[in-house]
Design a protein that fits this description.
By secondary structure, this protein is an alpha+beta fold. The chain is built from 1 helix and 2 strands. The chain starts with 11 loop residues before the first helix and ends in a 10-residue tail after the last strand.
Length: 62
């Protein structure tokens, strides 16, 4: 199984695609993905605070 460190991302679009896939897998597995998540990354990388909120679908949603 490939880990997130093994996936080379070269654009925001690729990042968005990977995030979308991760959130879909979590949702389909019954995980409540809405809320805040602290991403602590050790001394070599920045830490992030990620907030996920569900939005209303519009006619252009896939």
């Amino acid at each position: 199984m490939m880990t997130s460190e093994e996936i080379a991302l070269t654009s925001r679009e690729e990042l968005n695609g990977q995030l979308k896939a991760l959130l879909r897998r979590a949702y389909e597995s019954g995980i409540d993905v809405e809320g805040g998540f602290e991403c602590r990354n050790g001394a070599d990388h920045p830490d992030w605070d990620v907030i996920i909120t569900e939005v209303e679908k519009n006619e252009q949603s896939e």
